[in-house]
UniProtKB/TrEMBL annotation:
Naturally occurring in which organism (per UniProt): Mariniflexile ostreae
Keyword terms, alphabetized: ATP-binding, Cytoplasm, Kinase, Nucleotide biosynthesis, Nucleotide-binding, Transferase
Residues bound to ATP: G190, A191, G192, K193, G194, T195, R307, G353
UniProt enzyme class: transferase
Enzyme Commission code: 2.7.4.3
GO molecular function, one term: AMP kinase activity
Gene: adk
Listed pathway(s): Purine metabolism; AMP biosynthesis via salvage pathway; AMP from ADP: step 1/1
CDD domains from the UniProt entry: ADK, PRTases_typeI
Official protein name in the record: Adenylate kinase
InterPro entries documented for this protein: Adenylat/UMP-CMP_kin, Adenylat_kinase_CS, P-loop_NTPase, PRTase-like, PRTase_dom
Region entry NMP, spans: 210-239
Family under the similarity heading: Belongs to the adenylate kinase family.
Record flagged with keyword Nucleotide-binding: yes
Protein backbone atom coordinates (compact mmCIF):
# COMPACT_ATOMS: atom_id res chain seq x y z
CA UNK A 1 0.00 0.00 0.00
CA UNK A 2 1.18 3.54 -0.72
CA UNK A 3 0.03 6.99 0.35
CA UNK A 4 -0.05 9.97 -2.02
CA UNK A 5 -1.14 13.23 -0.44
CA UNK A 6 -4.19 12.26 1.64
CA UNK A 7 -5.16 9.05 -0.19
CA UNK A 8 -4.15 5.41 0.01
CA UNK A 9 -3.58 3.18 -2.99
CA UNK A 10 -3.06 -0.56 -3.33
CA UNK A 11 -1.12 -2.50 -5.97
CA UNK A 12 -3.41 -3.23 -8.91
CA UNK A 13 -1.61 -3.98 -12.19
CA UNK A 14 2.00 -5.14 -12.16
CA UNK A 15 4.78 -3.90 -14.43
CA UNK A 16 4.78 -7.33 -16.12
CA UNK A 17 1.07 -7.22 -16.89
CA UNK A 18 1.47 -3.74 -18.36
CA UNK A 19 4.38 -4.94 -20.46
CA UNK A 20 2.37 -7.88 -21.80
CA UNK A 21 -0.60 -5.66 -22.66
CA UNK A 22 1.65 -3.23 -24.55
CA UNK A 23 3.33 -6.05 -26.46
CA UNK A 24 -0.09 -7.24 -27.62
CA UNK A 25 -1.11 -3.73 -28.68
CA UNK A 26 2.14 -3.29 -30.60
CA UNK A 27 1.56 -6.57 -32.41
CA UNK A 28 -2.02 -5.75 -33.30
CA UNK A 29 -1.21 -2.23 -34.51
CA UNK A 30 1.92 -3.12 -36.46
CA UNK A 31 0.06 -5.96 -38.19
CA UNK A 32 -2.80 -3.66 -39.11
CA UNK A 33 -0.52 -0.91 -40.47
CA UNK A 34 1.66 -3.08 -42.65
CA UNK A 35 4.48 -1.06 -44.17
CA UNK A 36 2.94 2.32 -43.63
CA UNK A 37 4.95 4.67 -41.44
CA UNK A 38 2.54 5.91 -38.77
CA UNK A 39 2.74 9.02 -36.65
CA UNK A 40 2.20 8.11 -33.03
CA UNK A 41 0.95 11.01 -30.98
CA UNK A 42 1.13 10.77 -27.20
CA UNK A 43 -1.02 12.96 -24.98
CA UNK A 44 1.05 14.51 -22.23
CA UNK A 45 1.64 14.27 -19.38
CA UNK A 46 0.13 10.90 -18.57
CA UNK A 47 1.15 8.99 -21.67
CA UNK A 48 4.92 9.54 -21.53
CA UNK A 49 5.75 6.10 -20.09
CA UNK A 50 3.30 4.25 -22.30
CA UNK A 51 4.51 5.95 -25.48
CA UNK A 52 8.12 5.32 -24.58
CA UNK A 53 7.60 1.61 -23.93
CA UNK A 54 5.28 1.28 -26.93
CA UNK A 55 7.64 2.74 -29.53
CA UNK A 56 10.61 0.81 -28.11
CA UNK A 57 8.69 -2.36 -28.90
CA UNK A 58 7.37 -1.15 -32.27
CA UNK A 59 9.16 -3.33 -34.83
CA UNK A 60 9.06 -1.00 -37.83
CA UNK A 61 9.91 2.65 -38.61
CA UNK A 62 7.53 5.17 -37.06
CA UNK A 63 7.36 8.81 -36.05
CA UNK A 64 6.60 9.94 -32.52
CA UNK A 65 5.39 13.27 -31.25
CA UNK A 66 3.43 14.65 -28.32
CA UNK A 67 0.62 17.07 -27.69
CA UNK A 68 -0.34 18.41 -24.32
CA UNK A 69 -3.60 19.15 -22.60
CA UNK A 70 -3.60 22.65 -21.15
CA UNK A 71 -6.24 24.22 -18.95
CA UNK A 72 -7.64 27.65 -19.62
CA UNK A 73 -10.13 29.68 -17.74
CA UNK A 74 -13.24 30.13 -19.81
CA UNK A 75 -15.14 33.34 -20.48
CA UNK A 76 -17.16 32.62 -17.41
CA UNK A 77 -14.32 32.42 -14.93
CA UNK A 78 -15.88 29.36 -13.29
CA UNK A 79 -15.55 27.16 -16.38
CA UNK A 80 -12.34 25.27 -16.96
CA UNK A 81 -11.58 24.69 -20.63
CA UNK A 82 -9.10 22.02 -21.67
CA UNK A 83 -7.29 22.50 -24.97
CA UNK A 84 -4.72 20.33 -26.67
CA UNK A 85 -1.65 22.27 -27.72
CA UNK A 86 1.56 21.50 -29.55
CA UNK A 87 0.26 20.07 -32.83
CA UNK A 88 2.63 21.82 -35.24
CA UNK A 89 3.52 19.08 -37.70
CA UNK A 90 1.85 18.80 -41.12
CA UNK A 91 -0.07 15.55 -40.94
CA UNK A 92 -1.69 15.70 -44.36
CA UNK A 93 -2.19 12.22 -45.77
CA UNK A 94 -0.67 10.52 -42.71
CA UNK A 95 -1.98 7.72 -40.58
CA UNK A 96 -2.13 9.08 -37.05
CA UNK A 97 -2.44 6.87 -34.01
CA UNK A 98 -3.24 8.65 -30.77
CA UNK A 99 -1.58 6.94 -27.81
CA UNK A 100 -3.57 7.64 -24.67
CA UNK A 101 -2.64 6.45 -21.20
CA UNK A 102 -6.24 6.23 -20.10
CA UNK A 103 -9.71 6.93 -21.42
CA UNK A 104 -12.17 7.74 -18.72
CA UNK A 105 -15.15 10.00 -19.56
CA UNK A 106 -13.88 10.60 -23.09
CA UNK A 107 -13.63 14.37 -22.68
CA UNK A 108 -10.01 14.42 -23.76
CA UNK A 109 -10.90 12.29 -26.75
CA UNK A 110 -13.57 14.80 -27.80
CA UNK A 111 -10.86 17.47 -27.74
CA UNK A 112 -8.58 15.23 -29.85
CA UNK A 113 -11.29 14.90 -32.47
CA UNK A 114 -11.94 18.65 -32.35
CA UNK A 115 -8.32 19.61 -33.10
CA UNK A 116 -8.12 17.06 -35.91
CA UNK A 117 -11.31 18.32 -37.56
CA UNK A 118 -9.44 20.42 -40.09
CA UNK A 119 -6.37 18.20 -40.48
CA UNK A 120 -6.42 16.24 -43.71
CA UNK A 121 -5.06 13.04 -42.22
CA UNK A 122 -5.48 9.73 -44.01
CA UNK A 123 -6.86 8.19 -40.86
CA UNK A 124 -7.07 8.97 -37.17
CA UNK A 125 -7.07 6.03 -34.81
CA UNK A 126 -7.24 5.82 -31.07
CA UNK A 127 -5.17 3.46 -28.93
CA UNK A 128 -5.45 3.56 -25.16
CA UNK A 129 -3.54 1.53 -22.63
CA UNK A 130 -6.29 1.73 -19.99
CA UNK A 131 -10.00 2.09 -20.56
CA UNK A 132 -12.83 2.51 -18.08
CA UNK A 133 -15.94 1.29 -19.97
CA UNK A 134 -18.29 2.25 -17.12
CA UNK A 135 -17.07 5.86 -17.19
CA UNK A 136 -16.96 6.36 -20.96
CA UNK A 137 -19.73 8.70 -22.13
CA UNK A 138 -18.84 9.34 -25.79
CA UNK A 139 -19.37 7.48 -29.06
CA UNK A 140 -15.92 7.84 -30.60
CA UNK A 141 -14.55 4.55 -31.74
CA UNK A 142 -11.65 3.19 -29.71
CA UNK A 143 -9.53 1.22 -32.16
CA UNK A 144 -7.09 -0.42 -29.76
CA UNK A 145 -7.54 -1.08 -26.05
CA UNK A 146 -4.86 -2.45 -23.73
CA UNK A 147 -6.57 -3.22 -20.43
CA UNK A 148 -10.16 -2.58 -19.38
CA UNK A 149 -10.46 -1.50 -15.78
CA UNK A 150 -13.30 -0.68 -13.40
CA UNK A 151 -14.31 2.93 -12.82
CA UNK A 152 -11.89 3.52 -9.96
CA UNK A 153 -9.09 6.02 -9.77
CA UNK A 154 -5.62 4.66 -10.54
CA UNK A 155 -2.09 6.05 -10.34
CA UNK A 156 1.32 5.02 -11.59
CA UNK A 157 2.90 4.40 -14.98
CA UNK A 158 2.49 8.03 -15.98
CA UNK A 159 -0.83 8.61 -14.23
CA UNK A 160 -0.90 10.97 -11.29
CA UNK A 161 -2.92 11.96 -8.31
CA UNK A 162 -2.35 15.70 -7.98
CA UNK A 163 1.08 15.37 -9.62
CA UNK A 164 2.30 12.47 -7.51
CA UNK A 165 2.61 8.86 -8.64
CA UNK A 166 3.60 9.31 -12.28
CA UNK A 167 7.01 7.76 -11.66
CA UNK A 168 5.74 4.42 -10.34
CA UNK A 169 6.47 1.50 -12.69
CA UNK A 170 3.20 -0.27 -11.84
CA UNK A 171 -0.44 0.72 -11.38
CA UNK A 172 -2.05 1.30 -8.00
CA UNK A 173 -5.77 1.60 -7.39
CA UNK A 174 -7.41 3.89 -4.88
CA UNK A 175 -8.57 2.19 -1.71
CA UNK A 176 -12.29 2.50 -1.15
CA UNK A 177 -11.91 2.13 2.56
CA UNK A 178 -9.57 4.86 3.52
CA UNK A 179 -7.03 4.40 6.23
CA UNK A 180 -8.08 2.16 9.11
CA UNK A 181 -5.93 1.31 12.07
CA UNK A 182 -6.16 -2.41 12.63
CA UNK A 183 -4.16 -3.84 15.48
CA UNK A 184 -3.45 -7.32 16.67
CA UNK A 185 -2.93 -6.96 20.40
CA UNK A 186 -0.82 -9.43 22.29
CA UNK A 187 0.42 -9.74 25.80
CA UNK A 188 1.11 -12.51 28.27
CA UNK A 189 -1.47 -13.16 30.98
CA UNK A 190 -1.27 -10.28 33.46
CA UNK A 191 0.27 -7.82 31.00
CA UNK A 192 -2.69 -5.43 31.18
CA UNK A 193 -4.00 -6.07 27.70
CA UNK A 194 -7.67 -5.56 28.61
CA UNK A 195 -6.99 -2.28 30.41
CA UNK A 196 -4.96 -0.90 27.53
CA UNK A 197 -7.40 -2.11 24.87
CA UNK A 198 -10.11 -0.04 26.62
CA UNK A 199 -8.00 3.11 26.39
CA UNK A 200 -7.01 2.52 22.75
CA UNK A 201 -10.59 1.82 21.78
CA UNK A 202 -11.72 5.21 23.05
CA UNK A 203 -8.75 7.26 21.90
CA UNK A 204 -8.72 5.94 18.31
CA UNK A 205 -12.39 5.03 17.98
CA UNK A 206 -11.56 1.38 17.37
CA UNK A 207 -13.74 -1.66 17.88
CA UNK A 208 -12.28 -4.24 20.24
CA UNK A 209 -12.87 -7.76 18.97
CA UNK A 210 -11.99 -10.43 21.47
CA UNK A 211 -12.40 -13.79 19.77
CA UNK A 212 -13.40 -15.41 23.07
CA UNK A 213 -16.19 -12.85 23.52
CA UNK A 214 -17.32 -13.31 19.91
CA UNK A 215 -17.54 -17.08 20.43
CA UNK A 216 -19.48 -16.74 23.66
CA UNK A 217 -21.83 -14.17 22.11
CA UNK A 218 -22.57 -16.35 19.06
CA UNK A 219 -23.07 -19.48 21.12
CA UNK A 220 -25.28 -17.70 23.67
CA UNK A 221 -27.41 -16.16 20.92
CA UNK A 222 -27.53 -19.46 19.03
CA UNK A 223 -26.45 -17.92 15.74
CA UNK A 224 -25.80 -20.37 12.92
CA UNK A 225 -22.07 -19.81 13.30
CA UNK A 226 -22.33 -20.14 17.05
CA UNK A 227 -24.08 -23.48 16.76
CA UNK A 228 -21.49 -24.64 14.28
CA UNK A 229 -18.68 -23.63 16.62
CA UNK A 230 -20.42 -25.31 19.54
CA UNK A 231 -20.68 -28.59 17.64
CA UNK A 232 -16.88 -28.69 17.50
CA UNK A 233 -16.36 -27.51 21.06
CA UNK A 234 -18.82 -30.13 22.37
CA UNK A 235 -16.83 -32.86 20.64
CA UNK A 236 -13.71 -31.53 22.30
CA UNK A 237 -12.37 -30.48 18.89
CA UNK A 238 -10.83 -27.15 17.91
CA UNK A 239 -13.12 -24.79 16.04
CA UNK A 240 -11.89 -24.71 12.40
CA UNK A 241 -10.22 -21.44 11.42
CA UNK A 242 -12.81 -20.78 8.72
CA UNK A 243 -15.63 -20.76 11.28
CA UNK A 244 -13.73 -18.28 13.43
CA UNK A 245 -12.89 -16.13 10.42
CA UNK A 246 -16.56 -16.14 9.35
CA UNK A 247 -17.50 -14.89 12.81
CA UNK A 248 -14.84 -12.18 12.70
CA UNK A 249 -16.03 -11.22 9.23
CA UNK A 250 -19.56 -10.76 10.60
CA UNK A 251 -18.16 -8.57 13.43
CA UNK A 252 -16.13 -6.47 11.02
CA UNK A 253 -19.16 -6.00 8.76
CA UNK A 254 -21.36 -5.05 11.69
CA UNK A 255 -18.90 -2.24 12.43
CA UNK A 256 -18.23 -1.07 8.90
CA UNK A 257 -17.94 2.58 9.96
CA UNK A 258 -15.21 1.93 12.55
CA UNK A 259 -11.82 3.61 12.32
CA UNK A 260 -10.33 0.17 12.78
CA UNK A 261 -10.24 -2.91 14.96
CA UNK A 262 -8.26 -4.32 17.84
CA UNK A 263 -8.02 -8.08 17.43
CA UNK A 264 -7.52 -9.82 20.71
CA UNK A 265 -7.02 -13.58 21.01
CA UNK A 266 -6.68 -14.08 17.27
CA UNK A 267 -4.63 -14.98 15.28
CA UNK A 268 -2.73 -17.67 17.14
CA UNK A 269 -1.16 -19.53 14.20
CA UNK A 270 0.45 -18.65 10.92
CA UNK A 271 -2.55 -20.01 9.02
CA UNK A 272 -4.86 -17.80 11.08
CA UNK A 273 -2.66 -14.75 10.51
CA UNK A 274 -2.84 -15.38 6.77
CA UNK A 275 -6.61 -15.85 6.93
CA UNK A 276 -6.92 -12.58 8.84
CA UNK A 277 -4.82 -10.81 6.19
CA UNK A 278 -7.15 -12.17 3.53
CA UNK A 279 -10.20 -11.03 5.46
CA UNK A 280 -8.79 -7.50 5.81
CA UNK A 281 -7.78 -7.48 2.16
CA UNK A 282 -11.31 -8.38 1.13
CA UNK A 283 -12.38 -5.27 3.04
CA UNK A 284 -9.80 -3.17 1.17
CA UNK A 285 -7.91 -2.86 4.43
CA UNK A 286 -5.01 -4.47 6.27
CA UNK A 287 -3.50 -5.29 9.65
CA UNK A 288 -1.23 -2.36 10.45
CA UNK A 289 0.56 -3.73 13.48
CA UNK A 290 0.96 -6.48 15.97
CA UNK A 291 1.56 -4.82 19.29
CA UNK A 292 2.86 -7.00 22.09
CA UNK A 293 3.02 -5.81 25.66
CA UNK A 294 6.31 -7.00 27.05
CA UNK A 295 6.50 -7.76 30.74
CA UNK A 296 9.20 -9.68 32.52
CA UNK A 297 8.12 -13.16 33.73
CA UNK A 298 8.85 -12.44 37.39
CA UNK A 299 6.73 -9.29 37.32
CA UNK A 300 3.87 -11.23 35.70
CA UNK A 301 4.04 -14.00 38.30
CA UNK A 302 3.91 -11.42 41.09
CA UNK A 303 1.01 -9.54 39.47
CA UNK A 304 -1.02 -12.69 38.87
CA UNK A 305 -0.46 -14.10 42.34
CA UNK A 306 -1.63 -10.77 43.73
CA UNK A 307 -4.70 -10.85 41.46
CA UNK A 308 -5.36 -14.43 42.58
CA UNK A 309 -5.56 -13.33 46.19
CA UNK A 310 -8.58 -11.14 45.40
CA UNK A 311 -10.06 -12.57 42.18
CA UNK A 312 -10.48 -16.10 43.38
CA UNK A 313 -9.49 -17.34 39.90
CA UNK A 314 -7.93 -20.76 40.44
CA UNK A 315 -5.52 -20.31 37.53
CA UNK A 316 -4.18 -17.16 39.21
CA UNK A 317 -3.42 -18.86 42.51
CA UNK A 318 -0.85 -21.47 41.61
CA UNK A 319 2.63 -20.30 40.65
CA UNK A 320 3.46 -23.33 38.48
CA UNK A 321 0.18 -22.94 36.55
CA UNK A 322 0.96 -19.27 36.06
CA UNK A 323 4.46 -20.02 34.80
CA UNK A 324 3.06 -22.59 32.39
CA UNK A 325 0.50 -20.13 30.99
CA UNK A 326 3.30 -17.65 30.39
CA UNK A 327 5.35 -20.33 28.64
CA UNK A 328 2.43 -21.30 26.41
CA UNK A 329 2.00 -17.63 25.52
CA UNK A 330 5.62 -17.29 24.38
CA UNK A 331 5.48 -20.51 22.39
CA UNK A 332 2.36 -19.33 20.63
CA UNK A 333 3.41 -15.78 19.95
CA UNK A 334 6.93 -16.54 18.77
CA UNK A 335 5.54 -17.73 15.41
CA UNK A 336 3.37 -14.65 15.04
CA UNK A 337 6.17 -12.36 16.11
CA UNK A 338 8.15 -13.71 13.14
CA UNK A 339 5.16 -13.45 10.81
CA UNK A 340 4.59 -9.78 11.58
CA UNK A 341 8.29 -8.90 11.92
CA UNK A 342 8.78 -10.09 8.33
CA UNK A 343 6.27 -7.44 7.29
CA UNK A 344 7.78 -4.78 9.58
CA UNK A 345 4.59 -4.81 11.59
CA UNK A 346 5.78 -6.10 14.96
CA UNK A 347 6.01 -3.63 17.80
CA UNK A 348 7.07 -4.68 21.28
CA UNK A 349 5.99 -2.20 23.95
CA UNK A 350 7.35 -2.15 27.48
CA UNK A 351 4.40 -3.15 29.65
CA UNK A 352 5.97 -2.28 33.01
CA UNK A 353 5.11 1.04 34.64
CA UNK A 354 2.02 3.07 35.41
CA UNK A 355 -1.09 2.48 33.29
CA UNK A 356 -0.78 6.01 31.87
CA UNK A 357 2.90 5.54 30.98
CA UNK A 358 2.12 2.31 29.10
CA UNK A 359 -0.82 3.96 27.30
CA UNK A 360 1.55 6.75 26.24
CA UNK A 361 4.01 4.19 24.80
CA UNK A 362 1.22 2.48 22.87
CA UNK A 363 -0.03 5.81 21.55
CA UNK A 364 3.38 6.74 20.24
CA UNK A 365 3.56 3.45 18.29
CA UNK A 366 0.04 3.79 16.87
CA UNK A 367 0.58 7.42 15.89
CA UNK A 368 3.37 6.33 13.53
CA UNK A 369 1.16 3.82 11.66
P1 LIG B 1 -11.20 11.60 -19.88
O1 LIG B 1 -10.89 12.87 -20.59
O2 LIG B 1 -12.32 11.75 -18.86
O3 LIG B 1 -11.38 10.40 -20.77
O4 LIG B 1 -9.98 11.26 -18.96
C1 LIG B 1 -8.72 11.28 -19.45
C2 LIG B 1 -7.79 12.00 -18.54
O5 LIG B 1 -8.25 12.09 -17.21
C3 LIG B 1 -6.51 11.22 -18.50
O6 LIG B 1 -5.63 11.64 -19.49
C4 LIG B 1 -6.01 11.47 -17.11
O7 LIG B 1 -5.25 12.65 -17.09
C5 LIG B 1 -7.24 11.69 -16.29
N1 LIG B 1 -7.69 10.44 -15.62
C6 LIG B 1 -8.81 9.75 -15.83
N2 LIG B 1 -8.88 8.68 -15.02
C7 LIG B 1 -7.76 8.69 -14.29
C8 LIG B 1 -7.25 7.82 -13.26
O8 LIG B 1 -7.84 6.80 -12.86
N3 LIG B 1 -6.05 8.15 -12.72
C9 LIG B 1 -5.36 9.25 -13.11
N4 LIG B 1 -5.79 10.07 -14.06
C10 LIG B 1 -6.99 9.81 -14.66
MG1 LIG C 1 -4.00 11.53 -20.51
Amino acid sequence: MIKLHDKYFKPFISAEEIDTAIALMVEEISNALGDEIPVFIGILNGSFMFVSDFVKKYPKPCEVTFIKLASYEGVKSSEDIQRLIGLTQDLTGRTVIILEDIIDSGKTLAEVHRIFQNEKVKSLQIATLFYKPEAYKKDFKLHYIGIEIPDKFIVGYGLDYDNLGRDLPEIYQIKETQHMTNLVLFGPPGAGKGTQADFLKDKYNLVHISTGDVFRYNIKNKTALGMLAKSFIDKGALVPDQVTIDMLNAEVEKNAAANGFIFDGFPRTNAQAKALDQLMDSKDSQINAMIALEVDDEVLVKRLLQRGETSGRADDADESIIRNRIKVYYNETAILKDYYTDQNKYFGVDGVGSIEAITERLNSVIDTL
